[in-house]
Amino acid sequence: MSDREVIRLELTRHPWLPNLGNIDEMLASIGVSSVEDLFRDVPPAVRFRGGFHIGRPMSEEEIVERLDNLEEKNSKLTCPPFLGAGACPHYVPQAVRFITSRSEFYTAYTPYQPEISQGLLQAMFEYQSYMAELLEMEVVNSSLYDWGSALSEAVLLSHRLTSKKKILVPSSINPFHLQVMRTWTAGKGMEVREVPYDSRGNLSQDHLERELQGGDVAAVYAQQPNFFGVIEEELEFLTESARKHGAISIMGVNPLVLGVLRPPGDYGFDVAVGDGQELGLQLNYGGPMIGLFATRWDGRLVRQMPGRIVGLTTDSKGRDSYTLVLQTREQFTRREKATSNITTNEALMALASLVYLSLLGREGLRELGEEIMRRSHYTSNRFEEIGVIRPLEGEFFEEFLVRFPLSYGVVRKKLKERRFHGGFQIGEREALFCVTEAHSKAHIDSMIETVAEAM
Q: What's the average model confidence in pLDDT over 284-290?
């Protein structure tokens, strides 16, 4: 080729994107005359008929600049939010994100198969082991979506084992978890009954015992701490009463509270559920989270567990080998015999919790729990100094309910002006505040001063 010759390179399609140039050819291939025909099953009333107004095509550089400009319009909070209600802010060590960002973990979306890598299987096995020790339960799966789905799975497990349809839950249950559970159990015709709480915020033992008398209860649930942050004080009574009346006992637990309180296994619960969000997961605008699910060593319970379990064995040469065991999902057994249709196992989130717990260790978890207790109680005392009271008398962890002498809407507006995200509103004058190690004394004092100004 001479120097004067011109090389012409003609591309008929983009090398990395599907070729959408000949839509008519594709429509003809599938037997429809227009793109509109593809959506004829969608009722006209719910179809979007407007324009998207997305503007002209932009280069990557222009898109990044556009996104940066949009981000600058966001309001930045003065400190981490005081909003909890099931998702609380915590400091996550950089090591957690570094390890979970490694390609061998990050790109393995939702591995189910027995032949997946030994490294990932080992990580999941270690996660189960850590959770088993933390909860003092013998068998842990890996894993579920979140607390609400884990609780729902536990309730369905109790129905399969007992053939009963009544479920007892405290009125102090997280309402979002309750909503999920009602949705999951509606198709089974199950009845969810709420047991009231006393002036301390604890589950009423008298009401619980009366509800159990008919012998038609499949499961009894307790939450530690409950939605109001109050620590339940008489959980042995619940497990003993449930066992006496042939019901499955289920404990929902914030795993961080186990640094300072007794675990579910110590009380004798049959099943433990919860959420690992507070173990190394950022809030991320609401997700993803990770549902914890564990049972005591009982063949009936273990065989009815949802999800999957990783076990440790040896290969033909005597070397440690990890494999999936008791795969009761619908992808591994006949649909009617599957315990659950749970799919995504949240393995990446489980890895984050594993790394977080590895970094903290036993003593670190205890120290963290104690620090959260100190800061949340300090905040409660500061509230009392300005005339904001706690309507529930019980001891609490991380979250607590407060009652204002005026509408909380007025207080919330003032907090918003100072770029504080206040607590979760419960009633006209009540709100649930969350305080963790992420809130410094300066943050807390400044927030209290803002509330005082609003009052």
A: 88
